[in-house]
Amino acid sequence: MGVDTVLWSKLVTGMTLGFHMIFATIGVGIPLMIAIAELTGIRKQDAHYALMAKRWARGFVISVAVGVVTGTAISLQLALVWPNFMKLAGNVIALPLFMEVFAFFFEAIFLGIYLYTWDRFKNPYIHWLLTIPIVAGAGMSAVFITTVNGFMNQPGGFTMQDGQFTAVNPVHAMLNTATFSKVFHVLSSAYLTGAALLAGIAAFTMLRRGITGYHKKALKLMMTVVLLFGALNTLAGDVSAKFLAEHQPEKLAAGEWHFETRSGADLILLGWLNAEHKVEGALHLPKMLSFLAFGNFNAKVTGLNEFPSDEQPPLLIHYFFDLMAGIGFALLGISMLYFLFAFWKKRNEHNKWMLRLIAAGAPLAFLGVEMGWFYAELGRQPWILRGYMRVEEAATTSPSVRILFFLFLLLYIVLGVVSVLVLRRLFNNNPAEIEMEKWARHADEKRTGEGAHT
Amino acid sequence: MMSYDLIGISVLWLFLYGYLIIASIDYGAGFFAFYARLTKQDHLINRLISRYLSPVWEITNVFFVFFYIGMIGFFPDTAYYYGSALLVPGSIAIVLLAIRGSFYAFENYGSKNKIVYLFLYGASGLLIPASLSVALALSEGGFILKQGQSVSLDYWALFTNPLSWSIVGLAIVSVLFISACFMAFYASRAEDQAALKLMRTYALFWSTPTIIVALTAFIYLGQHNERHYQNMMDLWWLLALSVAFFMIAMWLLYRGRRYGLAFVCVMLQFVCALFAYGIGQYPYILDPYITIQSSVTSSSMGFALVVVFIGGMCLLIPSLILVFKLFLFDADYVKGKK
Questions:
Q1: Which of A129, B242, B261, B263 has the most CB atoms within 10 Å of its CB?
Q2: Which residues pair with B146 in a beta bridge?
Q3: Which of A8, A82, A109 has the most B C-beta neighbours within 10 Å, making it the best mutation to test the interface with B?
Q4: B316–A102 C-beta distance less than 8 A
Q5: ipTM above 0.85, yes or no
Q6: Residue B260: helix, strand or coil by DSSP?
Q7: Can you count the helices (H) and strands (E) in chain A?
Q8: Residues paired with residue A390 on neighbouring β-strands, in sequence order
């Protein structure tokens, strides 16, 4: 019974996080895009960009709602499904959780104001200024929650005494060794994914409905962001790998199928393991793992066999790592290709295949984020608090958790399906060009109406 | 110098009160919106309700998470006891909160006029306070069992106890009462006579059940937890104040004037009652396992939480004032001219 309950507890949490991650990424990434579009619109005096900000904000609210409720779910599940973990670590991680609530509160207040004040200020910059607390609040939420995840990987800021954490220094715990690389990677990938999503939607619409000025502008703006954050995200990935090599070598070793400690280690891509745990059918990049881990082709990289077998993460995460990294490079490559075509007059950056690639980039970006999180979470196994508490010690003992898995599964299916339906209805019956015309007509009427009065 | 356990519980109790008021308005409004649609009176009040709710719905949810995280932060033992015992009711509350939050957004920003969405939104609005109030019943003791290392909930005792049912009932009727009073005030500000008339009727209708169920719950509390009951009796003046504010609110509503003052009186009624209840339960958070002294977090954490709390308030209070100025006290917005 005990093992079973632990398994179902893991499944409930994994499912909730996997579902929440989609909406959390949108929640962190999209506000920046809205802010960029609105600012561009004000500076260029181009109504297309203002419409962009308005339409993106409208879709954003729907996904934020799902993000909020799944975020509430995960925070409550922490205590409901992992009561022993919260009893031990609640002492330490309550501070960042508390701060996250404030950051989110701040964001929620200004999002409410932003959505309902489009025409209330004479100076357009005032309305734009409202995006700053939204972007900051969303970003800081991500930062605070990521410090908690960092703490689970690199616990610090306390001393262990009789199974209790004493001499707690919560700020030190937040600024653990994992925090910097994780925060950097989470933020860069969220902005990258937000931009890839919006670029993908623009490309997809142009493929279906033909090329229009509005979507061309949206695509170009977002591909610029993809290029910038694609590059930053690659750097963040590199920083993360170097962090793992130094502080959490078993996670890197399991992700790379690097079993024996050696210098000048090869980077292994894909492949499979045979019955004797030998890698077959993989692509070997000579000495690249050493370079990835330490920036030196001959550096010594710790292998997985250095760790007792009951403290090794599952080897499946190798594929998660490869997919995540592959997608990261692919997104960067797509944006580079787009700008190459855009600047090279002979080529058309809006040709069918380019648009198809960009459209595929949107779901790929989300797959990349999911793979990254599964790599991060499974790579910490068997620990929930690395070195202090194992996952099976933390779980609830109540067998009801199995039924609850199916209850939550049903909930997420309903939420996922309905939000997609609602979003489709919101935009399918109301294409940007038609809304633009309506808008222009409305503005005209207003102007002539005012003229008649004076 | 006050100790961190007292500071913590006072702040949390204030936030619980804030949640009680704000969430009641929200939950009740959801129910009224659905009920009005059902009885074909929605043209009277739905515009008013959505005008108020649209900008603030997320804020409600945050109040709740704030209370919960603050509880775990200041008193980590609560996570273990309540977390273990509340796995099932807590999960049901999560599902209801999720349905409510998302279907509000779906209805409001997505497809208008879907009665199914509105039903989910309205019904969950009554079920959430019902499921959350179970935690209050649990804190009275006798429902959570500890055997060795495992903590579990005695469902049979909970479901057969009149105290738990009267607390659930009190949660539901007070939600409807608080919400109707607020909506009457909001309608009077908007100078919307038709809506005002309807909301005033709702407010008067739900007032009597509120006071009757409150008294019933109090009597059952006396049978279930003698200590808590006696402590509250010692605070008789707070309870008397609460009843007095209720009477003033009723009189104002009945006479049909000063709706703002009437709502303030309702708020004061609940502040007195909630604090009489809370102070009476002192020092227990969960009778008999957790007291605030035994479960309080380390002083460094307590200090950090208080600092963050003060800093956060400095950010939030001006922002909340801005929201209120823009949406609640801006007469043109309330009247629908903006």
A1: B263
A2: B151
A3: A109
A4: yes
A5: no
A6: helix
A7: 15, 10
A8: A383
